[in-house]
Amino acid sequence: MKKILVIDDGANNQASATKSLADSGYEVVVAKNFEEGFSLLRWSHGDYEVVLLDLLMPCPKSRAGAVLPLGPEARQFEGQEMPFGFPLVFLAAMSGAQYIAVVTDANHHDHPMSAMLDPFEWLRNSGGVRLLLNGAAVKFFQYPATFPLQGTVCNKCQGTGTLRDYKCYGCYGSGNQLGKDWGMLLKLLLSDEEPCRVVPGL
Ligand SMILES: [Zn+2]
Question: What spacing in Å lies between the alpha carbon of 143 and ligand 1's midpoint?
């Protein structure tokens, strides 16, 4: 069975990976942080046909045997969210992945690295801008946190689905916590429109 590797440090996004990709026809492997994902990709030889990446993940702690050889000067970065999704695209392409996506649930008003993805989002409704890298198709997506996790309770509206008489913005009215809808993103990633090499309007 072909494999998908999902690298995301959010527990909700790990849960939605298992659930939303259950019928994808792929074996789903979930890496729970940058370090785990980096190790899997680094030693992969075409193990994963599809790699789905979170954009922002915490910097691992420096310690013996860590995947990044961070010295004392790098201690200041420990635990900080960093846009590891970008370099992991290149590592995934080098590892022989055929389809790669970077997916952030950070709104572009709230984080500069999410705002950086705006140019890639303009084709969202027709499947997203597809770039080719080392033979792999690469796409970037913002805030697809739309997969309701059954059995969980939205922490904004406590499960009622409404906030001050409006539909809750945290769960879109579902009352559940949301995770990234990786299944929907996989469909967009595999959609086979022609690759877009020049983004009009830039
Ligand atoms: Zn809610």
Answer: 16
Distance 160 CA to ligand 1 centre (A): 7
Output the CA 174–ligand 1 centroid distance in Å. 7
How high does pLDDT run on average in the chain?
89
Domains of the chain (ranges, CATH numbers) = 3-144+181-190 (3.40.50.2300), 147-178 (no CATH)
162, 124 contact by CB (below 8 A): no
The interaxial angle of helices 34-42 and 85-94, nearest 10 deg, is 20
The alpha carbon of 10 and the centre of ligand 1 are apart by a number of angstroms equal to 18
pLDDT band at 126 (very low <50, low <70, confident <90, very high): low
Q: What is the DSSP letter of 17?
A: H
What are the tens digits of pLDDT across the range 18-68? 999 999 999 999 999 999 999 999 999 999 999 999 999 999 998 888 889
